């Protein structure tokens, strides 16, 4: 018997440009991933997880993600997340989730003021999350980044709180921070443990032909968790 | 009524744009320190009532124009 294919929609805004890569990667990893337009007010009924892809939603005017957070589909994503639904934001998707208040912190222009586009070394801090379960603790991953505004910021008080809660799940390896992010943070989990955002692009690293398939560990973890929620609901 | 919102990176927030501007000013021979770069938003409001205008702009700042985690703002009201 083949395993059930969980439905993991990928949201598309005007200016999204990684939605097809995310769709392709998720479908290769065993999910069903329809692309959902930003004006849709509802997610498909069978939705087991949602992915907010990279790109430049609505041109990223004002601040990255600041305008996309008001799109109709995000009301549905917020409701889904509030019910404990799994939400993954990649790059611009991460920026949108922070602007929407679904994830802590904010993303600022890179300290270098330059757009960075290259593979980076990462370290997995926790594996007991729906987004990193296929990794081993302390595992080194190589996944590309490509962004101009990836400098994650939290003030000292918030940072200490997130650290104590174990929400700083993914960090750039020592010396590999590409953007000046506080505490080398590359990916953050919400307090509920069901919403995760990261600047690196796992969907661009799912085939060793492209240099690394470490991204499949992140997306594969999500597919596993989504499939689990599916069987739990039956 | 015309409103102007001045948005600034909060103190302590790394401001690479400000640093680049400061460095360029120094290269030009100006003795400056701690340059910071923010944003200015001008907007025409339908109301001419100052209290109402301020209340509206405050809501705009909270909802969209600023991110309170990293930015502070100042409001100026003038003639349209």
Total domain count of chain B: 1
Q: List how many beta strands of chain A DSSP finds.
A: 11
Number of domain units of chain A:
1
- Overall 3D geometry of chain A? globular
The residue fraction in helices of chain B comes out at: 25-40%
Poorly predicted regions of chain B are none
CATH fold-level label of chain B: Mth169, Chain: A
> What is the strand content of chain B?
25-35%
Give the CATH architecture of chain A: 3-Layer(aba) Sandwich
Describe the structure.
The complex is a heterodimer of chains A (234) and B (80). Chain A is α/β, with parallel strands linked by helices. Chain A has one domain: Class I glutamine amidotransferase (GATase) domain (Rossmann fold, 3-Layer(aba) Sandwich), CATH 3.40.50.880. Helices cover 24% and strands 21% of the residues of chain A. Chain A has helices at 19-28, 72-82, 92-99, 156-164, 215-233, and strands at residues 10-12, 35-37, 49-52, 86-90, 106-108, 116-124, 140-147, 151-153, 170-172, 185-189, 195-198. Chain A has a seven-stranded mixed sheet with strand order 3-4-11-10-9-6-7, with helices on both faces. In chain A, a hairpin with a 5-residue loop joins strand 10 and strand 11 (195-198). Chain B has one domain (2-78): 2-Layer Sandwich (Mth169, Chain: A), CATH 3.30.1280. Chain B is 35% helix and 28% strand. Chain B is α+β, with helices and mostly antiparallel strands and 80 residues long. Chain B is elongated. In chain B, strands 2-1-3 form a three-stranded antiparallel sheet, with helices on one face.
């Amino acid at each position: 018997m083949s395993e059930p294919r969980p439905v993991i929609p990928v949201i598309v805004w005007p200016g999204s440009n990684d939605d097809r890569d995310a769709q392709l990667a998720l479908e290769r990893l065993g999910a069903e991933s329809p692309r959902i337009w930003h004006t849709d007010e509802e997610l498909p009924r069978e939705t087991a997880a949602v992915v907010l892809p990279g790109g430049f939603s609505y041109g990223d005017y004002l601040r990255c993600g600041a305008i996309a957070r008001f799109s109709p589909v995000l009301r549905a994503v917020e409701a889904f997340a509030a019910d404990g639904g799994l939400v993954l934001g990649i790059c611009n998707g991460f920026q949108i989730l922070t602007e929407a208040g679904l994830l802590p912190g904010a993303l600022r222009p890179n300290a270098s003021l330059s757009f960075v586009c290259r593979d980076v070394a990462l370290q997995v801090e926790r594996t007991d999350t729906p987004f990193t379960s296929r990794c081993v603790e302390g595992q080194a991953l190589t996944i590309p980044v490509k962004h101009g505004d990836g400098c994650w910021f939290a003030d000292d008080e918030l940072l200490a709180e997130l650290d104590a809660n174990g929400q700083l799940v993914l960090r750039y390896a020592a010396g590999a921070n590409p953007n000046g992010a506080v505490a080398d943070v590359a990916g953050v989990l919400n307090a509920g443990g069901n919403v995760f955002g990261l600047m690196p692009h796992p969907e661009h690293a799912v085939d060793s032909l492209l240099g690394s398939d470490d991204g499949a560990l992140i997306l594969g973890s999500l597919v596993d968790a989504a499939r689990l929620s599916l069987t739990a609901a039956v | 009524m015309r409103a102007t919102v001045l948005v600034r990176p909060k103190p302590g927030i790394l401001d690479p744009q400000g640093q680049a501007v400061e460095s360029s000013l120094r290269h030009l021979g100006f003795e400056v320190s701690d340059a910071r770069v923010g944003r200015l938003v001008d907007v025409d409001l339908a109301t001419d009532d100052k209290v109402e205008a301020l209340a509206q702009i405050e809501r705009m700042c909270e909802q969209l124009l600023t991110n309170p985690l990293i930015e502070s703002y100042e409001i100026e009201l003038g003639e349209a």
